[in-house]
Amino acid sequence: MPPSKIFRCFPLCGCLMLLLFPSCRRDVALERALALAGENRQELEHVLWHYKDDSLKLAAARFLIENMPYHFYEEEFYALPGDGRHRPQLTDFSTEEAGKAHLDSLARAGRMVERHRYKDIQTLDSAFLVRNIDLAFEAWMKPWARRVPFAVFCRYILPYRTSREYPSGLRKEMMDRFTPLLDSAGVSTPLEACSLLNARLETLMKYKKNSPPFYPTIEETYAWGGARCEGLCDLGLFVMRAVGIPVALDKTLWTRMDWGHNWGAVWQDGRFHSFAPGEQLPGEYLPVLNGRGNLRPAKVYRSHFGLCSVPGREEGADDGYATWLKSPLLEDVSPEYLERPVDVRVSTDRIREFVHASGRVYLCAYNYYRWEPIAMGCRTDTVCQFHRVGCDNIFIVADSPSGGRLRFLTAPFHADASGHVRKFIPRTDQTRAFTFPKRKRLLKRPYTLHYWDAESASFSPLEYDSTADSTQSYTNIPENALLWFTVPDRIVNQRVFYLENDSVITMDLIR
Prior knowledge:
8-stranded antiparallel β-sheet, 26 strands, about 25% helix, alpha+beta, Transglutaminase domain-containing protein, 14 helices, 5-stranded antiparallel β-sheet, Immunoglobulin-like, globular
């Protein structure tokens, strides 16, 4: 975005700004943000100068600027010969299938996606921020929003972004389009406003699987009429905030199927009520999560625009391992969603063999071909502990002494609803036979059965005894092993499981 020209008549240097605002000298967070802005510092100082006579808007501007260092966006496109760029717009195609065919052709041609990251603090100009602040205050005066406290307004109405989407200039358009709907209905609370508006959004945007391999912009999702869950949440929550509804983004990494999920939560009277933008209304989404076994989360986190405490941050020095769980913008809200969260305590298997063992440990679930951290905890001697976890799930515990990769401290284990642990340490001297069915759509693909080898801390293949059109049989399966029956293709939801009596036990079937 080009720098705003509206404030060019106030060419203030940084030192003069500190004289005009002596509190800035004492405010470490604000001064840190201004320092990180680099060449963009003057744009941010223009915002503070603009609101020098309006204490409330000045406080709102300070809130945004202080927290902008934690936010970024990316420009993504297909690289073309000669430094060319191509970002397909699905609105250019008559059908989703035509759009998908175009994306497939780019992949076959070997076109690579390039990504360039930009920090908000170094790129967003004064015009964008002033416009956003003024529109947010205008929406705050609506009947359903005017009783929202200022601190809540700053966190859940004022922000110009939800996640890492490209900053959008559509706030005024969304406000003008959807505010009359709420005005005419006479709603008086955030919950009423969210329910009515979400019902309208259901007619305007849908989940679309065949989206380009880019993180969508608000403008793209709005024009396409849909996206995957990230895009739906970004647009839905952006619209909610534009009309003065305080909302936040909640997220989880699945433990009973691959990938993860985002949805919304609306604030009212000190409580949050979950909903799915463009789908389930407030009050309807929590039963969906708890009612279907594969959707039941083990941990849920709320993403904020401003800083908040991070679960486990205080428990030992940082080990340098990079994970989204360490974001200072995340709040653990698992108790709001889990029927019976429990603390999980599990002993390490071979701690004396590990050198430089870290006190920071990670609870991991098997998700899309790898163990992914879903929670951070602490280790004391040989015991690892994690707080407020939804169980009846298969986990493994790891640390990261080198900061670059995970090192497994335990065998995989099943934690039942009460947190009791059953470890899967295979007994290779005791084997059993079993015949596995193949997927109906993948009958002709070669299958391999793997078991988790606790010694090598990896999945090891097993030779099959016989194979048929729809089944594959084994006679050499170690007892008490965690298993994984897969095809070579990288497809979703090839779940880990174990055998009990004559049944396959997978977590998506546990109720």
